[in-house]
Design brief:
- This protein has 647 residues and is α+β, with helices and mostly antiparallel strands.
- Helix content is 35%, strand content 22%.
- An eight-stranded antiparallel β-sheet has the order 6-7-8-9-16-13-12-11. The protein has a five-stranded antiparallel β-sheet with strand order 5-4-10-15-14, with no helix packed on it. A three-stranded antiparallel β-sheet has the order 1-2-3, covered by helices on one side.
- A hairpin with a 3-residue loop joins strand 11 and strand 12.
- Helix 9 crosses helix 11, helix 9 packs parallel to helix 12 and helix 12 packs antiparallel against helix 13.
- The longest helix is centred in the middle third of the chain and has 23 residues.
- The radius of gyration is 25 Å and the shape is globular.
- The two termini are 12 Å apart.
């Protein structure tokens, strides 16, 4: 069965009006809860179990205060953030779904359901790029009486600046529909900074609500919402949070507007109006999508797997910015968060790709279109792809010191083949055939026994003869052969397919180390996760003998620690995205869950209250580094395999 049918089905799920199964509560105690997730700059989380026990944080762990107070019959109850309002609500639960985080509180005689919704539905690019999230409320009396209720939402000017030395200007105003509060720096140095541990300090932060019930609160960055009488029937509404960054990315010397304003004829007020007009329908679509994702993930990998996928969804998307390039291509540019701040890193796109292949292959293309452009324009002249196109948000060319030749060539070839299989045609590959051939030939010459170089696990250092990297090269050559076959280039397909098989046979003979396969070809006393082999299964190449994965999986089960499988024999740390790929090669559900359960346990118990890490210790509850990164999109590999192969 062709993958395109499954992709179409997944997209239709997001917009279909058919009834879906009921809500499945996410019981994971998240290390951090997503609140407002728009892009790498407006990515705000709660780092405490109770929403009122700490101020929200930016993913960089800078406090991003957002205060919520419900006043009931003149008595104030703080339900979000820290302030001098001493009386707190009572929080009953927090539930993270793919597009929503749902809290349930009691505020004295009324109950409050609070939902943070980011309608990041991947089949609608205008919606995906709209810089507006919702904070919705549903309030009901719990004592049979009627009560006077109002709410206050207050942000801080830190939402629009990088550091406390910067002067911000606050204002408020109303148009014919909404009351707004607004904040931005006085200096407005658009695209003036690049790097990792940075907050945006250009453009403007907004909160907005219906002016019939909302008003600004003096010189505070706050909205007061008059809810009125609340009895046994619930009263609901919402405020909107948005950010107009004016220009998002500098792309090979040209300042680019965000996709939602790609023609320069849209306004942030217009985006708020669209958000309000579409709220009811979007709420239904988000509920439907969230329920469907959870149901499919439970069926595919169990409830704990589903809960991890739900938490990974918004994190993956919020680590990107969508633009339209001057060439007319989509570019979905990642930020390498909590690392070096690179933009458009190929070896981030590679692990994150299953999410995009599952829900919209056009976005999978958008992860790599700019890498093709970089080589095809002559700006990048090496016989292998670039590692990145700059440091976020400046995409003027690679800034990473050093290259990953085999890594990135393998990534680009495999991703291109996966995209073409998703679409059921080789058209995308044919657009880039010359450079794909160059990369395939580079791997034929240099990929089987790699020289001393970095791979995506660069934190582990450089080392030669990396068996997992070699496996990637072999599979990438098989991917090129597959593309040639789809394109009707029969002789080319046969030539490269034969080469891949020849290389795989050498790999097996050289990497074998008794009951497993070594980390490097010259160190039989080592081992490593051969996560790259997952593509041999998922894309159906059949290049490597099946007993290789069987032996590896059996060996890995003997190397488990409390919080999962280490990346390799050198250290006890794990990469959760690669563990998910390794798990996807498991022969049955019992073995799959043997890999997943320790990962779930880590996130449920970790003492580091930050957005999902992908690099953590398997023998303690602490993480090494890396948080809020897009690579957790790789958790969807099992779901991608299920859709593609019916498993």
């Amino acid at each position: 069965m062709r993958l395109s049918k499954f992709i179409l089905g997944a997209l239709l799920v997001a917009v279909s009006c058919t009834k879906v199964p009921g809500h499945i509560v996410n019981e994971l105690r998240a290390p951090a809860y997503p609140l407002v997730t728009i892009d790498p700059y407006t990515s705000v989380w709660s780092s405490s179990d109770k929403l009122y026990d700490s101020d929200p944080i930016h993913w960089t762990e800078t406090d991003f205060p957002l205060l919520g107070v419900l006043t009931v019959d003149g008595v104030q109850y703080r339900f979000m953030g820290l302030s001098d309002v001493s009386r707190t609500a009572v929080q009953h639960f927090a539930d993270v779904q793919a597009t929503r985080t749902i809290y349930d509180f009691t505020c004295g005689p009324v109950d409050l359901k609070l939902t943070f919704m980011a309608p990041l539905l991947m089949d609608d690019l205008d919606l995906l790029s709209r810089p507006v999230n919702y904070i919705s409320y549903e309030i009901t009396s719990n004592d049979g009486s009627e009560h006077d209720v109002e709410a206050c939402f207050q942000a801080d000017e830190v939402w629009a600046r990088n550091d406390t030395t910067q002067v911000c200007v606050k204002s408020d105003y109303c148009d014919d529909r909404f009351c707004y509060v607004k904040c931005g720096t006085e200096s407005q140095q658009i695209l003036g900074k690049k790097g990792d541990d940075l907050r945006i300090d250009w453009g403007y932060f907004y909160m907005a609500a219906d002016k019939a019930s909302a008003s600004a609160c003096g010189d505070l960055l706050a909205l007061n919402v008059r809810i009125g009488k609340v009895g046994g029937n619930s009263v609901d509404g919402y405020v909107m949070v948005g950010y107009d960054d004016l220009y998002s990315i500098q792309y090979f010397g040209q300042d680019m507007r965000p996709y939602w304003n790609r023609d320069g004829d849209a306004s942030i007020e217009g985006q708020f109006a669209l958000a309000a007009d579409g709220y009811a329908g979007l709420k239904e679509r988000c509920v439907r999508f969230d329920n469907e994702l959870m149901r499919d993930a439970v069926q595919t990998g169990g409830k704990h797997y589903a809960e991890l996928c739900a938490l990974a969804y918004r994190q993956t998307l919020a680590a990107h910015k969508l633009i339209m390039t001057p060439e007319g291509d989509l570019a979905y540019l990642s930020k390498e968060c909590d690392s070096n701040g690179s933009i458009g890193t190929v070896d981030l796109s590679y692990p994150s790709s299953p999410l995009f292949l599952l829900y919209n292959p056009e976005l999978a293309k958008a992860l790599i279109n700019f890498i093709f452009h970089y080589s095809e324009s002559g700006k990048w002249t090496s016989p292998f792809p670039a590692h990145d196109v700059g440091t976020y948000p400046i995409a003027n060319g690679q800034t990473f010191v050093g290259d990953m030749p085999v890594e990135e060539a393998g990534n680009m070839l495999i991703l291109t083949d996966a995209i073409c299989k998703a679409e059921g045609a080789a058209d995308y590959a044919l657009r880039h055939w010359e450079v794909l051939t160059r990369w395939a030939d580079y791997l034929v010459e240099n990929g089987l026994d790699p020289a001393d170089q970095l791979c995506t696990d660069d934190f582990a250092g450089r080392f030669p003869r990396n068996a997992n990297l070699s496996a990637k090269a072999v599979l990438a050559i098989a991917a090129y052969a597959d593309l040639a076959g789809m394109a009707g280039k029969t002789e080319v397909a046969e030539k490269y397919s034969a080469k891949a098989s020849e290389m795989a046979a050498w790999w097996k003979k050289t990497a074998v180390a008794g009951d497993h396969y070594a980390l490097t070809f010259d160190r039989g006393d080592t081992w490593s996760q051969k996560y790259n082999l997952v593509w041999d299964r998922v894309l159906g190449y059949g290049v490597f003998d099946g007993d290789i994965v069987e032996d590896e999986i059996a060996f890995y089960l003997t190397r488990m620690n409390e919080y999962g499988l280490p990346l390799d024999s050198r250290r006890n740390y794990a990469k959760s995205d690669w563990t998910m790929w390794t798990a996807a090669m498991a022969p049955d559900m019992e073995v799959f869950r043997a890999f997943i359960e320790p990962v779930y346990r880590f996130f449920n118990e970790t003492v580091d209250r930050v957005p999902m890490t992908d690099w953590y210790n398997t023998d303690s509850r602490t993480y090494m580094h890396f948080k809020a990164r897009s690579v957790v999109g790789g958790y969807f590999m099992k779901m991608f395999d299920a859709k593609y192969n019916g498993r």
